[in-house]
Predict the 3D structure of the following.
Amino acid sequence: MTSRFMTGLLLWLTLAAFLLSLMAGKVWIWPMSWAADNADGWIFLELRLPRALLGLCIGAVLGLSGAVLQGYLRNPLADPTVLGVSASAALGGVLAIFLGINLVPFGLFGCAMIGACASILLLLAIGRGGGPIGFILGGMVLSTLAGALTAFVISIAPNPFAASEIINWLMGALTDRLMEDVLTALPCMAIGVLLLLTTGRALDALTLGENGAKSLGVDLFRLQWLIVLGVGLSVGASVAVSGVVGFVGLIVPHLIRSFCGEQPSRILVPSALGGAVLTLTADSLVRLIPGPGEMRLGIAMAVLGAPFFLLLLLRYRKGAA
Amino acid sequence: MNLNVQNLGFAHGSTTTLQGIHASFEAGRFSVILGPNGAGKSTLLACLAGLRKPNSGTAKLGDEDITAMPAPTRAKRIGLLPQGAETHWAITSEALVALGRIPHARGAGASADDRRAIAAAMHATATDGFAQRPITELSGGERARVLLARVLAGEPEWILADEPLANLDPGYQLDILDLLRQQARSGKGVIAVLHDLHHAVRFADHVVLLHQGSIFAQGAVDDVITAQNLATVYGIDALLSKDEEGATQLLIKGKMRS
């Protein structure tokens, strides 16, 4: 009952956050001028709409992958960055900017997706048969390596402008994205989300540990593939269009769990919706902070997320004592 | 329908954990697998449950090879209570028991059959009193019963339990053993890996005694649990006698002196 109620409530909240994201900014654009043939109408169509759609999709993808990964690894501190997919996709994007491939249509997106896919294949090779531990260690190795290579590329950037362009992209933002960006990322995200949504029952079975799940007829190898492909496609695509936005995948499933209970399958859809609400709201607030320019979404999320993470750790320590 | 093991061998890497196992388990009986640590008890149970694929020989349910059965079919027919009573997340007892219905699941939500099986399993294990309590708040004994209810909810023909009594006090141990015996009496096949010889003497209809990866003895309790066998396999000095009601009594005096 609570789960269904929460899903309904979150749907309304998502709609509200989406509308807020369409209206809010240095210039407020009210619904009556959305279709107008003037500056407001153009801002709405060319800037606000793609930005709000991206926020919606990216938030949903991050929230859902966080919930799936926490269920799979049976660890409430897991999130998409754990797998190294974000870092590898970011490395692909950075290389694209460094080599100038980002000037070619789909160049940056393609390179980031190649990065994400390469990390998936490596993960499958490293983590094969190792279960969650092999998976998580492989992910840590990948994200460390990708992070180091990214830093290396920045350090050999030919001029300060290239370096600052790379750093700017890395920080994660939804600013100035076009409708083409949305349409490029959407298919990958949609396939990834569909794959991840099929994992609910298997994640529930893992509540009993791996042997318990296997004895219930769950194919853990298939589950691992589903998760790697689902997270790779959806998070890879989201990094490709928005850079690295962290913490959504970590925070949202936690909040959802305290309302919907802890059964893994019951928090998947609410976590996707919650992720969308959080990302859309944070992105709207970022635009409303007065002053020149705007705070990067990735930074804002980290500023919000780090204290939250600390609170979680304190609560766990209290629980353990 | 019987569970038959023929010439089964299992090797983990280069070490052989099981070899040349021939055994037959009958439905309607409470079978107990005994043996010292590292004798291969859990591995044998995992092969019977279809979780591990033997390197040689076969494990068959009736005339079907267990490892060749599709996983959901196998899961419907053979229920396993794994070692260690592992659970994650603070879900309710009822939600945990409902996991036992996963092999039967079609579409979303619980069917009438599911609800009936869950209620019956919780009633049989006397866990319906705390159906809505999170499993993290249960005592060890309550948790053990909920986990067993999870296996019963799947309505398997066979119930395999790997050390189901670990960390339970004597009263709870007897509760679980009674429940397993009831299941056997109702016609299901029950196989449990146990450590306590007293429990085996008192509850088992059939005993398989493993030693260093092979079967040392198998058969009725009185034929398998003998002072001589216990001395060889466990290195213990035991005294077996019949009490005035004709039941076998076991007294372990200590380690054998060499």
